[in-house]
Amino acid sequence: MCNTCGCNITPGNRPLVMAEKPKNGVTTVSVLQNLLSKNNHQAEHNRAHFDAQKVLVINLMSSPGSGKTALLEATIKRLRDSLKIAVIEGDLETENDTKRIQAQGVPAYQIMTGTACHLDAHLVHNALHHLALDGLDLLFIENVGNLVCPASFDLGHHRNVVLLSVTEGDDKPAKYPVMFRAADLMLISKTDLLPYLDDFSAINAEQNLHNLANDAPVIEFSAKDGNGLDAWITWLQSEITAYKALLLKQQTQRPKIQQDGQLLHAQPGNSKFYPVSNKAKVHK
Length: 284
What we know:
The protein is of the alpha/beta class. It is about 35% helix and about 15% strand. About 45% of the residues are buried.
């Protein structure tokens, strides 16, 4: 697992680490290398659970402040009368985003990761004990704001949506290739600000995405003025239809989990030992 950004231990996989009886608050590289395979096993279990309930699960990823929660609010307002939606929120601290989602009248559950900069399959599994999946059409997982690690972890979800805010620069796909290679859809958010940002080009952003050999569609979107909302809703509805067609064939949908990122998190660095943080937690 990653030994540079503090994400190697999460409240979801900590019991697996502690079972190895670490000494003096540290555990060996071999234990951490095994965590990724255990995560993938848990992800398959999660996905089978979602498939049994016929719930399409979308993983939303972006840097902090790109508009994931605002996107969810706008989506829920448009779809809550026709689709049953729930949300899992991931943040290092606070329940602010969960409260915003619950104010829209849909169930939401908060995961606080403490020091971990991403969600993992174990955290999602624990959250499912607090969300009823019966009758759901869509489950959104709003991942921790981070353009690196979230793309490397299978949560058991079906699709990755990566947001790129116009305030971040159109070169982000080139700078963060692991994240944007994982995108099944790229949303360019906050387009209402484009009149004030003459250095951002949506054409360049899309070209930088496609330069990564990723032909995922791109939708320009503003939660403030509703631009692009129809295209986003159409994409969601088409994904639900395609997913249900796969289920009829006893098949499922898998996201683009990045092998380069998984290798980064599975390989040991120069240190032999990794600290075990006690700060991460899961809250309702």
